[in-house]
Amino acid sequence: MKARFIMPIAGVFTAGILFAWILQQRLPPEAPALARPGHDAAQAAQTASPTRGSDDFTAEESRNIEVFRHASASVVNVTSIALQRDFFTLDVMQIPQGSGSGFVWDDRGHIVTNFHVIENGSTFSVTLPDQTDYDAEVIGAAPDKDLAVLHIKAPASHLVPLPLGRSFDLVVGQTVLAVGNPFGLDNSLTVGVVSALGRELRSPSGRIIRDVIQTDAAINPGNSGGPLLDSRGRVVGVNSAIYSPSGASAGIGFAVPVDIVRRLVPQLIDHGKPIQPGIGITVLSDRVAQRSGLKGAVVYQVQQGGPAARAGIEGLRRSRGGMTVGDRIVSVNGKPIETSDDLFDAFEAAGVGSPVELTLSRDGKQRQVSLRLVAVE
User: Is residue 307 domain-shared with residue 322, that is, in the same domain?
Assistant: First the structure.
């Protein structure tokens, strides 16, 4: 039995030596040697495989490769953890809530991600592309726009900010690239085009985000918070959601436009929340207004001493028959206003300190009023 067992192994061993000798004779003189023990693995891999020249790729492939290489140094993984106390032992346990993506905003340690990525967490960590982990602190959030900013204490030399593009001049059919960490994996790239513009997306707060970018670049769970890039590697959006009954990419993804991100992130860093432009009014619920057959943003109450009060704008008034409607804002700078979201979006687009012209309707008559927007709570 022992002889019959050893013979096949000896035969295989002899055949292996013969095969290795034949292979060695056929190797070209310039064939790279195996890496010696102690060599860096990446260096060994680079030495062991021939470098592909630029002629091996199409112009489009070369561009995508370069964009991904640069972006990979800036895209991070964001992990959210909830703290819960055990009912019986009273011990505090860390319960993972999931992970998402983000990207480096500046070399001071600010990381941009989606609000829904950190919404249910108590503590957070950020993993940089070099696999170093840092505790992260939420320093600002804008639930209405599904944006949040984290801060980590990482050396500036480890932080590579991404350049920002513009989203107002995007066109349907333009190539875009999504970089993120789908399903908790390391940086991944998907390529597609801008499928549509001007879409609407409901934010975690329930408010509608306007002018959202639709793309067919695959956005899977974990991609949320990662950048949507143009072909030059500039951020044009923040990947936020997918439309899919199964929860996986179905060719319809959405990104918050970078023009909103560019405006809000400095506010979140400096103030912890968006600085809302306004005129010192509160508006009636859209549901109540629509039920009453009222169009536009119905002024509910006017703040004393504010721009609206100084301009003579009136809210609801008590009368013997109940409540009487005062002014309704039906347009801002010539743009029709149908809901309160329309009004807030118009004010945000203008910004604090900007002049706006309102068209007001009261008792069947319209008039124009010019105001300057101020920061409101």
Answer: yes
Residue 162: helix, strand or coil by DSSP?
coil
Among residues 167, 251, 175, 149, the alpha carbon closest in space to that of 209 is found at: 167
Q: What three-state secondary structure class fits 206? A: coil
* d(C-alpha 72, C-alpha 42), whole Å: 16
pLDDT digits (tens, 9 = 90+) for 153-201: 999 999 999 999 999 889 999 999 999 886 556 788 999 999 999 898 8
**Is residue 98 situated within a structural domain?**
yes
Q: Are residues 188 and 266 in the same domain?
A: yes
Between the alpha carbon of residue 18 and those of residues 25, 32, 33, the distances in Å are 11, 21, 20
Same domain, 85 and 146: yes
More confident residue, 302 or 89: 302
3-state helix, strand, coil in the chain (%, to 5): 25, 35, 35
Residue 249 has which token pair? 């990419």
Q: What is the pLDDT of residues 285-307, one digit of tens each?
A: 888 888 888 989 999 999 999 99
Q: What is the CATH number of the domain that holds 311?
A: 2.30.42.10
DSSP characters for 319-348? ETTEEE---EEEEETTEE--SHHHHHHHHH
Task: Indicate if 264 and 283 belong to the same structural domain.
Answer: no
Based on the structure, what is the number of domains in the chain? 3
Question: Same domain, yes or no, for 302 and 337?
Answer: yes
Q: How many CB atoms lie within 10 A of CB 67?
A: 21
The CA distance from 228 to 67, in Å, is: 11
With cut-offs at 50, 70 and 90, classify the pLDDT of residue 242: low
Closest CA to 221 of 252, 202, 247, 189: 247
Q: Which residues are catalytic?
A: 116, 146, 224
| 313 and 260 both lie in a single domain | no
The residue segments making up the domain with residue 286 are 276-376
